[in-house]
Write a structure and sequence with these properties.
By secondary structure, this protein is an alpha+beta fold. Helices cover 46% and strands 19% of the residues. A three-stranded antiparallel beta sheet has the order 1-3-2. InterPro entries: DNA-bd_dom_put_sf, MerR-type_HTH_dom, MerR_fam.
């Protein structure tokens, strides 16, 4: 199941900017992108 950044932020109780920051630091893997450029995360990729 693909999750967008807003859903990831809600489930983890942090804001979207924090998710992006964690990506830049390499704490979470870089997500795949839709054709429109939206980030999509899998639950497996977030269990790090």
């Amino acid at each position: 199941m693909a999750l967008q950044i807003g859903e990831v932020a809600k489930r983890s109780s942090v804001n979207k900017d924090t998710i992006r920051y964690y990506e830049r630091l390499g704490l979470i893997p870089e997500p795949t992108r839709t054709n429109a450029g939206y980030r999509t995360y899998t639950e497996e990729s977030l269990n790090v």
